[in-house]
């Protein structure tokens, strides 16, 4: 096909098996006069498109070789790709504590990594022509995590975060990026979920029937017909200025409402809907004299309510659930928002003996970081603290503090089993788990080293999930415990150049929201901690990751000038100076919160009988809460200016003037 203005837009759609959204989109694009390339892992699964005049190609989004072959074939025949729709994906229904990690990784390979690899293959061609549209298919559950489907929800939350950053990073090249979040749409996803469903649960055996019902929940009578959905989507994507975000399908109205509910109300509604509004009785194997008893709680003056907590949207504010002391049935007390103040102090002894403090396990405790400061604060509060890091010698600061130190690599299941086993063998329990270990990476998405990007997810997301799976069953057996997952303010607001870090933290946020409810029947409390800018000495230890600058554990750390690999950038070479200027700002500037103050306030919250559901703490948190209220067009304009992405680049020499498609 010649690249002439008289030809319709060239559209490439992934995940086009019969009966799905992708297949319907291909037919709708074809009816609108577009040249359509439909792709799927198995071309024979696209029999419905056989006689429609639509080109069909084999493409497995989890295979870089398959992606290169398919994109190369389209470019060789059509000369360009005007619209890319990243629709390929898969679901998985299972409780987080007992989910099969192999199946869970397959979901991320299709939903997140497949999207990113397709973007890296197609975006440079669009950027060279200064024209194109990329549509990433997310989901309404990427905004509000779905119980029993948290792996799917967190993968889609990561896609949402990636898309927000990509929209800004491709802005200078006149490439438009759209996030499509389907609600309930008639498709084959329910049948696929049911086919992958495994009901061999242990901890969650009482909920097996409810979990099975979750596999087909999107295919009820309120689901939107696929052809109607596809026509409306195509109409939007063919506009000169398509919307940045749009939700379409059944239950979208409910999602829009729920996004602005306070967390206590959202949790209560979801717990009722998914049969999680009752506490399970303690198991028979509980220690003698402990059956049916709650952990002993000692409280001193209560913190007051921070007024700013009442001004922010529900997904960015700390809320907690108030329960009457000793209540063994579903919570009925009215919940109220809360967060920290400097007044008051609380201490919780989560043990059956008042003479022994809570046993705390913290990951990622290298000197100078948040984890190290948390260990010191927990120890100062009378807790028995186990500090962990990949290299025990990196915890020299904790040498004489009376804190136990253990080697633990959160990316290694064997290392996790050994460390958790050692703590349980010595202390007999774990009362508080703080999943703090993490890693950052700074690079533009289109030119990112995917091996290094995967390392970020291994530490930030999979490390958190593997620690939960190792510790939560022991807490569940005791019907007591607190899990704190460390996210980031970047998980709420994705930033250019740090999109992989942001999307990994967005996935952690989504996972935590679902985990909080899935563990509610076992009396386990789950808190999301989202640090803002916190001062530390880790900028002195920034290491080079491959050919790109990386840092541990925060994306806010500066990049030494000599370690910024600007010679590796091609498409983004004009932005190297601006990128360096932004990320060289030290985290220990005058506005950063001191790490020891941060740690003391976090520990005070975690030692409360009912810690907040979410806690945002650190510098610039108030600014984040304000920005989250802004409309997307205003947010994009401000961030583009801050990151020097507000000026379009000229069309490179050699590009034909007739190549642009509006």
UniProtKB/TrEMBL annotation:
<protein>
    <submittedName>
        <fullName>NADPH-dependent 1-acyldihydroxyacetone phosphate reductase</fullName>
    </submittedName>
</protein>
<keyword id="KW-1133">Transmembrane helix</keyword>
<dbReference type="GO" id="GO:0016491">
    <property type="term" value="F:oxidoreductase activity"/>
</dbReference>
<dbReference type="InterPro" id="IPR020904">
    <property type="entry name" value="Sc_DH/Rdtase_CS"/>
</dbReference>
<feature type="transmembrane region" description="Helical">
    <location>
        <begin position="615"/>
        <end position="633"/>
    </location>
</feature>
<dbReference type="InterPro" id="IPR002347">
    <property type="entry name" value="SDR_fam"/>
</dbReference>
<keyword id="KW-0812">Transmembrane</keyword>
<dbReference type="InterPro" id="IPR036291">
    <property type="entry name" value="NAD(P)-bd_dom_sf"/>
</dbReference>
<dbReference type="Pfam" id="PF00106">
    <property type="entry name" value="adh_short"/>
</dbReference>
<keyword id="KW-0472">Membrane</keyword>
<dbReference type="GO" id="GO:0005783">
    <property type="term" value="C:endoplasmic reticulum"/>
</dbReference>
<keyword id="KW-0560">Oxidoreductase</keyword>
<comment type="similarity">
    <text>Belongs to the short-chain dehydrogenases/reductases (SDR) family.</text>
</comment>
């Amino acid at each position: 096909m010649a690249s002439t203005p008289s030809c319709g837009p060239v559209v490439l759609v992934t995940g086009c098996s019969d009966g799905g959204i992708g297949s319907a989109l291909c037919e709708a694009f074809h009816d609108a006069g577009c040249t359509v390339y439909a792709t799927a892992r198995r071309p024979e699964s696209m029999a419905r498109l056989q006689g429609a005049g639509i080109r069909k190609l084999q493409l497995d989004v989890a295979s870089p070789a398959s992606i290169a072959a398919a994109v190369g074939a389209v470019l060789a025949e059509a000369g360009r790709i005007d619209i890319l729709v990243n629709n390929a994906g898969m679901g998985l229904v299972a409780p987080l504590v007992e989910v099969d990690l192999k199946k869970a990784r397959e979901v991320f390979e299709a939903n997140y990594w497949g999207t990113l690899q397709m973007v890296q293959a197609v975006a440079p061609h669009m950027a060279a022509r200064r024209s194109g549209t990329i549509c990433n298919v997310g989901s309404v559950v990427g905004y509000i995590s779905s119980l029993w489907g948290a792996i799917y929800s967190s993968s889609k939350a990561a896609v949402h975060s990636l898309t927000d950053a990509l929209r800004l990073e491709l802005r200078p090249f006149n490439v438009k990026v759209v996030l499509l979040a389907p609600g309930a749409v008639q498709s084959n996803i329910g049948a696929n979920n049911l086919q992958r469903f495994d009901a061999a649960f242990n901890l969650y055996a009482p909920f097996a029937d409810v979990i099975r019902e979750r596999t087909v929940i999107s295919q009820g009578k309120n689901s939107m017909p696929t052809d109607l959905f596809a026509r409306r989507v195509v109409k939007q994507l063919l506009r000169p200025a398509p919307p940045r975000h749009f939700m379409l399908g059944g239950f979208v109205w409910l999602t829009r409402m729920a996004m602005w509910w306070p967390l206590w109300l959202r949790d209560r509604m979801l717990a009722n809907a998914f049969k999680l509004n009752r506490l399970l009785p303690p198991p028979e194997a509980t220690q003698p004299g402990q059956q049916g008893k709650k952990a002993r709680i000692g409280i001193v003056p209560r913190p007051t309510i921070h007024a700013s907590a009442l001004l922010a949207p529900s997904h960015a504010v700390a809320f907690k659930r108030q329960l009457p002391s000793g209540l063994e049935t579903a919570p009925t007390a009215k919940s109220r928002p809360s967060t920290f103040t400097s007044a008051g102090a609380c201490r919780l002894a989560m043990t059956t003996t008042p003479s022994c403090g809570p046993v705390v396990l913290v990951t990622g405790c290298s000197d100078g970081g948040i984890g190290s400061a948390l260990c010191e604060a927990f120890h100062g509060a009378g807790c028995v603290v186990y500090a962990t890091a990949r290299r025990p010698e990196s915890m020299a600061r904790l040498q004489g503090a009376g804190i136990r130190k253990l080697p633990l690599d959160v990316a290694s299941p064997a290392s996790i089993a050994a460390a958790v086993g050692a703590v349980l063998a010595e202390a007999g329990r774990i009362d508080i788990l703080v999943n703090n270990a993490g890693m950052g990476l700074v690079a533009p998405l289109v030119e990112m080293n995917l091996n290094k990007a995967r390392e970020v997810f291994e530490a930030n997301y999979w490390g958190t999930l593997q620690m939960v799976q190792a510790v939560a069953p022991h807490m569940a057996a005791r019907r007591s415990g607190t899990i704190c997952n460390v996210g980031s303010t970047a998980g709420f607001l994705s930033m250019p150049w740090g999109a992989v870090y942001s999307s990994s933290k967005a996935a952690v946020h989504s996972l935590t929201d679902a985990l909080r409810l899935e563990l509610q029947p076992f009396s386990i409390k789950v808190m999301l901690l989202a640090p803002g800018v916190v001062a530390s000495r880790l900028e002195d230890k920034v290491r080079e990751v491959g050919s790109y600058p990386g840092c541990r554990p925060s994306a806010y750390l500066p990049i030494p000038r000599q370690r910024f690999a600007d010679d590796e950038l091609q498409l983004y070479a004009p932005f190297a100076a601006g990128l360096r200027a932004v990320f060289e700002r030290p985290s220990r500037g005058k506005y950063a919160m001191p790490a020891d103050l941060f740690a003391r306030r976090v520990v005070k919250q975690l030692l409360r009988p009912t810690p907040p559901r979410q806690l945002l703490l650190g510098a610039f948190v108030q600014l984040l809460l304000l920005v989250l209220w802004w409309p997307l067009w205003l947010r994009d304009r401000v961030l583009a200016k801050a990151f020097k992405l507000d000026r379009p680049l000229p069309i490179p020499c050699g590009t034909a003037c007739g190549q642009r498609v509006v």
